[in-house]
Amino acid sequence: MIWNDEFETLPREAIESLQLKRLQQVVERVYATVPFYRNSLDDAGITPDMIRSLDDLQRIPFTLKQDMRDSYPYGLFAAPLEQIVRIHASSGTTGKPTVVGYTRRDIENWSEMMARCFIAAGANKGDVIHNAYGYGLFTGGLGAHYGAEKVGASVIPMSGGNTRKQLMIMQDFGSTVLTCTPSYSLFLAEVAAEEGIDFKNLKLRVGIFGAEPWSETMRQEIEAKLNLKAIDIYGLSEIMGPGVGVECIEAQNGLHLWEDHFIPEIINPDTGEVLPHGEKGELVITTITKEGIPLLRYRTRDITRILPEPCICGRTHVRIERLSGRSDDMLIIRGVNVFPSQIESVLFNIEGVEPHYQLIVDRDGTLDTLEVQVEVNEQTFSDEIKVLQNLSQQIRHSIKEMLGVTCQVRLVEPKTIARSEGKAQRVIDRRKS
Ligand code: DLL
Question: C or N: which end of the chain has fewer Cβ atoms within 10 Å?
Answer without folding.
Answer: C
